């Protein structure tokens, strides 16, 4: 029946009823008659699993209070590492950005000067941004890095409240300065 | 057996370094004969007939070289290569010092033969006394009228310019010599075009060795047939051999081509010093392959030495006794080539640098297994691939050493030390 | 068979190829699509065969032969793929890399580096070199434009040969020898050549890089747009390399007929002038002595109203840096809409012009036997790349005479000369014509001239009649001629429309003109960057820079070349759109939607341009 026919009839389709109005409840099949004891036994059998699990030690973790362990090679949030002397490892070569299959990394390089030395050598990353919403945590950036500057860490709780906050800037990605370097810088600062 | 002296026969005559003394021994007679009796073409034919081969190293037929000059293209230049810098080689120095006029006379004959009115002598920068001797000789020859306009009324104009090099081994290579002579960095030029077609200042040029031209007066005086009777089938005349190293009497010896090496080392040189045994020798200077005592009976001649697996080169016989460390010899030689590499082509510039590093490592006892093979492979990538023979030649000695003394290389590596260090004596 | 003798047939990798005598093996192989790796060889320089990368096997020759230096011979059998060749290629790359720092990650050449590419294709994969590398100075400032990294240098001699063979300046040289050889200038003094940018382009490694482009981008991040250099009238073809909608650099886009593959530094490094590194203001109208920001339609309406009031006493000046399409509309705005003949693109001088000024195409300089450069360095300064063409011609036997006086030029050319060229700047055009006429009567051959005009589209401005006395296509305006710019202050002009299209070819007002501007009722300024003229303007209409628009430019030899949009500036109106809006506000009713549609009308007005419409043709006025 096509749509056109239906319109001509003006009657909506009715489902065919499973049981006619004059048909009664089918008779109970022949055999044992139902008993209360059997019902309770069945109930206990069912509850045995439930109660058994209830009193056995729990396997779930109470996240976020408790956290499951991460493998050492877990690929979570990225970090930009530093050398022991506090200089950034990143040389701004953009190979991570080139390797990234989703194009979530932006690097803009600049030249080190004697007055402003950010990394060893000639080049450093002036801008380093990762769009965490796009990142698929494949770790190719880590593979591509010639100086082991970018690494994927164990941190995975990256939820946030706005899209803008998912653009991780260099300041956010960089490891903190080593304590001795920080102390040295602090002592040099204005009193 | 003794030497056969042609070039050096009058050496020791009083005042030979000066015109009067030289003329007393019959000097400049050949030049006058050539100017008066012979045509340039006849001279070229004469030299061709004599079978004279270049004494600079490659051993190319001198007359043949001259005949490569394109007909009718003037000016053409003659350049005498006196940039003798091959380690172990000091024959030109001897010739220039003892009898500079002989060289000048030969030069003038060659210039007349090829129709060149301006000849150059490029002398090694370090050869100061020789430079002075030549300067004197040229001044005397000029005064005597052997150099100048219309020489001895023959209508032949010739002038000679004496140029001192600045101390680069590479300038002994003929095209690098020409580049240096023009005032540029001493670097070899692309061949072809060969200097005979496009040489000095883009003009046809012949580059001859000092010893080659010094032989010419004798060929002109005595005739090509006389010259052709001396020596072997393919190597005519005599050669000066500069013997150095572990022999009792090192020095220059003039010998007939084809005389056995044994005669040179044992009869003339008095054998290996300190009653030690002969370990190896090099017949052609630093770049040439090493030969063993078993080759002592090989004749001193271009082809015979080549057949034995080395090259006669510039005629520098370096003798090594049994205490010589071949690895150290290689290191020292390759270091020399590394230092003298002009840097023009990649294989020579980088290859000699790397080979020096590897050889130093082996000699210092820090060698690795497989270093000898690495050297061979590197040598293979340099030899025949570099721009000029300097690169090629830097690999010949080490490769022949690995061929004959591989266990010595292995011993350095396995023992982590040079087995000769204790009793080693510096090679001259 | 005369033809057969200068052709040679040889075999490369089993395939026969016939090439002219004297062709190098490398080029014969290239003709077959067989790539032989090279570093030192360069098609515009003499072979030197120093890098030894191109060694191949030639039958009957015992040694491997450099394909870049050996000319072909009849019956030669060349093999480029044998094991011997491949093993050697690995060897030479291993040699080249032992002292190369391999700092590709921070190298500006990384990604477009022949050494990188060829190592990848022909190299050994791993090095057996396990010693300290030889160290040299890094990041040496060779000049304020060029940074030299001596470690990366593989000593291919391309840059030294460029300064020797191409520019003739001999500024770079090899210093020291062997593995210690370095490239440098005399006494380490800063390089002064104006062709330094080319060194960075021919360098097969990252040894010579541009300071301006330093660490700006990786090559794979660049957007590449074909364009034409905005520097001078030469019309050199460039490629605008941009990243994130910012110009990173200009590269040469070889056009053998024009630039021969080279650029001068004035053009190459001019891009900061065209960089939209900030917003350059919105359209504005002067209200109560202050410029107030308004929308485009408002500003256009104001401009149109003011122009209409001035009518035929309005004058218009357009920069020779604008495109043909814009100039054509500018010309129509004045001649058709406002009925004003006061148009100009020139500055103070009143240089005449005629189609004979392009009688000598740039590439034909090589085919002359005598070339007189009237004014010498003055001409070179006006179009620096011309020097490279002159030097090349000189190397190939053309006599180039750099003279200051007509008399000297006449004396320099002998009577038996057959093809003579005269080059001069627009300022000395009259002298050039005098010289040309005198030469015509002296020499037996032909004499042609080429006038170096100002601005990348100075020729187009003349062709399209941005002149008071000549209409489009040099149409003579009988009795309807206007006054040149120099006479405007005394010509009763009431309104002035300045189309200041390019920061390199500005209006350049004199003090007297500025005073005059202040006295005018109306000054309309259409410009890319804020300039001194904004102070005098009643209406400011911000337009686009040349990388942001498309259209055509006509070089000094009359070659019409297309420029394409490389930088997106959608929020700024296209300049032709502004001009059309101004005209339409006065009822012109122009229907143009693209610059191509303007060109179609332009070609109707100037028929010589019709031939140039589809491709990058050349308008040969002299051949009509």
Describe the protein's architecture and organization.
The complex is a heterotrimer of chains A (191), B (428) and C (624). With 191 residues, chain A is an alpha+beta fold. Chain A has a domain at 78-176: Alpha-Beta Plaits (2-Layer Sandwich). Chain A has helices at 3-9, 36-55, 95-99, 140-144, 170-173, 179-188; strands at residues 78-80, 105-111, 123-131, 150-152, 167-168. Chain A starts with a helix and ends with a helix. Chain B folds into 3 domains: 19-229, 3-Layer(aba) Sandwich (Rossmann fold), CATH 3.40.50.11540; 238-321, Roll (Ubiquitin-like (UB roll)); 326-415, NADH-ubiquinone oxidoreductase 51kDa subunit, iron-sulphur binding domain (de novo design (two linked rop proteins), Up-down Bundle), CATH 1.20.1440.230. In chain B, strand 5 and strand 6 (251-256) form a beta hairpin. By secondary structure, chain C is an alpha/beta fold. Chain C folds into 4 domains: 2-81, Ubiquitin-like (UB roll) (Roll); 131-274, Alpha-Beta Plaits; 284-351 and 457-623, 3-Layer(aba) Sandwich (Rossmann fold); 355-452, 3-Layer(aba) Sandwich (Rossmann fold). Chain C has 17 helices and 28 strands. In chain C, strands 15-14-26-25-24-16-17 form a 7-stranded mixed sheet, covered by helices on one side. In chain C, helix 13 links the parallel strand 20 (419-425) and strand 21. In chain C, helix 3 packs across helix 4 and helix 9 packs across helix 17 (595-605). The radius of gyration of chain C is 28 Å and the shape is globular. The model of chain C is unreliable at 620-624 (pLDDT under 50). The chains are: A alpha+beta (191), B alpha/beta (428), C alpha/beta (624). Chains in contact: A-C, B-C. Chain B binds chain C through residues 168, 170, 185, 190, 338-347, 349-354, 357, 361, 374, 377-378, 380-381, 384-387, and chain C through 47-53, 55, 62-64, 69, 88, 91-92, 94-96, 98-99, 128-129, 131, 134, 154-155, 174, 176-181.
Which architecture of one domain in chain A per CATH?
Answer: 2-Layer Sandwich
| Strand content bin of chain C | 15-25%
Query: What's the CATH first level of one domain in chain A?
Result: Alpha Beta
Number of strands of chain C: 28
Number of contiguous helices of chain C:
17
Helix content of chain A: 25-40%
Assembly context of the chains: heterotrimer
Which fold name corresponds to the CATH topology of one domain in chain A?
A: Alpha-Beta Plaits
Largest inter-chain contact set: B-C, 31 and 33 residues
Which structural class should the secondary elements of chain C be placed in?
Answer: alpha/beta
Overall outline of chain A:
elongated
Strand order of the largest sheet of chain C: 15-14-26-25-24-16-17
The largest sheet of chain C, given as strand count, sense and whether it forms a barrel, is:
7 strands, mixed
Counting helices, strands and paired strands, the structural category of chain A is alpha+beta
Q: Report, as a whole number of angstroms, the end-to-end distance of chain C.
A: 38 Å
Question: What name does CATH use for the topology of the largest domain in chain C?
Answer: Rossmann fold
User: Mean of residue pLDDT of chain A?
Assistant: 86
Mean pLDDT value of chain C: 92
**Low-pLDDT sequence parts of chain C:** 620-624
């Amino acid at each position: 029946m096509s749509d056109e026919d239906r319109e001509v009839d003006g009657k909506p389709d009715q489902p065919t009823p499973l049981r006619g109005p004059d048909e009664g409840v089918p008779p109970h099949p022949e055999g044992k008659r139902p008993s209360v004891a059997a019902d309770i036994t069945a109930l206990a059998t069912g509850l045995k699993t439930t109660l058994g699990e209830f009193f056995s030690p729990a396997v779930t973790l109470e996240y976020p209070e408790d956290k499951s362990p991460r493998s050492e090679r877990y690929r979570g949030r990225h970090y930009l590492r530093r050398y022991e002397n506090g200089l950034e490892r990143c040389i701004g070569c953009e190979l991570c950005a080139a390797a990234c299959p989703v194009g979530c990394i932006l690097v803009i390089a600049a030249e080190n000067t004697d007055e402003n030395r950010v990394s060893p050598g000639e080049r450093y990353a002036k801008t380093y941004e990762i769009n965490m919403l796009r990142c698929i945590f494949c770790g190719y950036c880590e593979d591509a890095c010639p100086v082991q500057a970018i690494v994927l860490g164990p941190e995975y709780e990256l939820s946030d409240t706005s899209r803008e906050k998912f653009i991780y800037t260099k300041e956010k990605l960089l490891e903190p300065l080593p304590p001795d370097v920080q102390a040295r810088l602090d002592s040099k600062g204005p009193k | 057996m003794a030497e056969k002296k042609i070039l050096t026969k009058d050496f020791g005559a009083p005042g030979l370094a000066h015109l009067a003394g030289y003329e007393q021994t019959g000097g400049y007679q050949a030049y006058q004969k050539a100017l008066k009796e012979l045509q340039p073409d006849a001279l070229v034919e004469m030299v061709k007939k004599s079978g004279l081969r270049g004494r600079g190293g490659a051993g190319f037929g001198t007359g043949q070289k001259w005949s490569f000059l394109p007909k009718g293209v003037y000016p053409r230049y003659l350049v005498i290569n006196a940039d003798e810098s091959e380690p172990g080689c000091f024959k030109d120095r001897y010739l220039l010092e003892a009898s500079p006029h002989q060289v000048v006379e030969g030069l003038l004959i060659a210039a007349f033969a090829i129709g060149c009115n301006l000849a150059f002598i490029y002398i090694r920068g370090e050869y100061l006394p020789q430079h002075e001797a030549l300067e004197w000789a040229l001044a005397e020859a000029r005064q005597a009228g052997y150099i100048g306009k219309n020489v001895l009324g023959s209508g032949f104009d010739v002038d000679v310019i004496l140029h001192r090099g600045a101390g680069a081994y590479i300038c002994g290579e003929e095209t690098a010599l020409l580049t240096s002579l023009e005032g540029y960095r001493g670097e070899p030029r692309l061949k072809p075009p060969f200097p005979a077609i496009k040489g000095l200042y883009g003009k046809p040029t012949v580059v001859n060795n000092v010893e080659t031209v010094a032989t010419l007066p004798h060929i002109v005086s005595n005739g090509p047939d006389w010259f052709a009777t001396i020596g072997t089938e393919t190597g005519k005349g005599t050669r000066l051999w500069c013997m150095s190293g572990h022999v009792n009497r090192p020095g220059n010896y003039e010998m007939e081509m084809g005389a056995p090496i044994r005669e040179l080392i044992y009869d003339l040189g008095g054998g290996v010093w300190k009653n030690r045994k002969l370990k190896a020798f090099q017949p052609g200077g630093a770049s040439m392959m090493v030969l063993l005592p078993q080759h002592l009976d090989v004749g001193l001649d271009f082809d015979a030495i080549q057949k034995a697996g080395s090259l006669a080169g510039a005629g520098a016989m370096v003798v090594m006794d049994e205490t010589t460390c071949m690895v150290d010899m290689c290191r020292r030689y390759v270091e020399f080539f590394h230092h003298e590499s002009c840097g023009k082509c990649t294989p020579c510039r980088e290859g000699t640098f790397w080979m020096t590093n590897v050889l130093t490592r082996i000699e210092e006892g820090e060698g690795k297994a497989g270093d000898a093979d690495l050297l061979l492979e590197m040598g293979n990538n340099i030899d025949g691939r570099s721009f000029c023979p300097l690169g090629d030649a830097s690999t010949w000695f080490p490769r022949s050493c690995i061929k004959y003394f591989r266990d010595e290389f292995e011993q350095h590596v396995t023992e982590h030390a040079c087995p000769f260090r204790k009793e080693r004596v510096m090679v001259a | 068979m005369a033809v057969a003798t200068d052709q040679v047939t040889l075999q490369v990798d089993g395939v026969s190829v016939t090439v002219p005598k004297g062709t190098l093996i490398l080029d014969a192989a290239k003709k077959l699509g067989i790539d032989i790796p090279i570093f030192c060889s360069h098609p515009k320089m003499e072979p030197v065969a120093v890098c030894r990368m191109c060694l191949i096997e030639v039958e009957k020759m015992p040694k491997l032969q450099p394909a870049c230096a050996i000319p072909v011979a009849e019956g030669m059998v060349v093999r480029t793929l044998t094991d011997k060749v491949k093993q050697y290629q690995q060897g030479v790359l291993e040699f080249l890399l032992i002292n190369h720092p391999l700092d590709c990650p921070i190298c500006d050449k990384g990604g477009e580096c022949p050494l990188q590419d060829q190592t990848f294709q022909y190299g050994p994969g791993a090095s057996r070199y396990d010693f300290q590398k030889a160290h040299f100075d890094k990041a040496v400032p060779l000049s304020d434009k060029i940074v030299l990294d001596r470690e990366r240098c593989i000593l291919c001699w391309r840059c030294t040969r460029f300064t020797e063979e191409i520019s003739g300046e001999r500024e770079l040289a090899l210093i020291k020898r062997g593995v210690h050889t370095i490239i440098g200038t005399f006494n380490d003094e800063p390089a002064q050549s104006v062709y330094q940018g080319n060194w960075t382009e021919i360098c097969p490694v990252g040894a010579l890089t541009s300071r301006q482009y330093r660490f700006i981008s990786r090559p794979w991040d660049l957007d590449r747009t074909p364009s034409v250099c905005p520097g001078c009238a030469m019309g050199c073809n460039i490629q605008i390399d941009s990243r994130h909608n910012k110009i990173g650099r200009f590269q040469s886009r070889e056009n053998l007929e024009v630039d021969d593959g080279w650029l001068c530094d004035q053009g190459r490094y001019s891009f900061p002038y065209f960089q939209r590194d900030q917003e350059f203001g919105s359209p504005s109208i002067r209200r109560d002595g202050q410029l107030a920001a308004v929308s485009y339609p408002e500003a256009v309406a104001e401009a149109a109203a003011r122009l209409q009031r001035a009518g035929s006493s309005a004058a218009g000046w357009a920069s020779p840096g604008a495109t043909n399409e814009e100039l054509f509309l500018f010309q129509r705005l004045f001649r058709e809409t406002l009925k004003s003949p006061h148009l100009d693109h020139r500055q103070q001088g009143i240089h005449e012009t005629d189609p004979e000024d392009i009688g000598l195409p740039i590439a034909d300089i090589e085919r002359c036997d005598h070339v007189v450069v009237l004014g010498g360095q003055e001409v070179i300064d006006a179009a620096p790349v011309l020097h490279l063409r002159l030097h090349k011609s000189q190397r190939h036997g053309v006599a180039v005479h750099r003279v200051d006086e007509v008399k000297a030029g006449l004396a320099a050319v002998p009577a038996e000369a057959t093809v003579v060229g005269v080059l001069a700047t627009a300022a000395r055009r009259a002298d050039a014509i005098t010289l040309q006429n005198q030469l015509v009567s002296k020499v037996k051959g032909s004499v042609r001239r080429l006038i170096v005009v100002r601005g990348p589209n100075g020729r187009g401005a003349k062709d399209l009649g941005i002149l008071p006395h000549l209409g489009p296509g040099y149409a003579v305006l009988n009795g309807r001629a206007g006054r040149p710019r120099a006479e405007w202050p005394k010509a009763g002009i009431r309104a002035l429309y300045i189309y200041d299209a390019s920061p390199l070819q500005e209006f350049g007002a004199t003090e007297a003109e500025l005073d005059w501007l202040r006295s005018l009722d109306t000054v309309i300024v259409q410009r890319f960057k804020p300039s001194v003229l904004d102070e005098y303007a009643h209406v400011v209409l911000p337009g686009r820079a040349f990388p942001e628009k498309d259209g055509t430019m006509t070089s000094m030899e009359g070659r019409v070349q297309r420029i394409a949009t490389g930088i997106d500036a959608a929020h700024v109106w296209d300049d032709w759109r502004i001009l059309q809006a101004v005209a339409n506000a006065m009822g012109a009713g122009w229907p143009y939607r693209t610059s191509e549609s303007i060109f179609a009308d332009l070609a109707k007005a100037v028929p010589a341009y019709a031939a140039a419409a589809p491709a990058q043709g050349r308008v040969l006025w002299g051949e009509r």
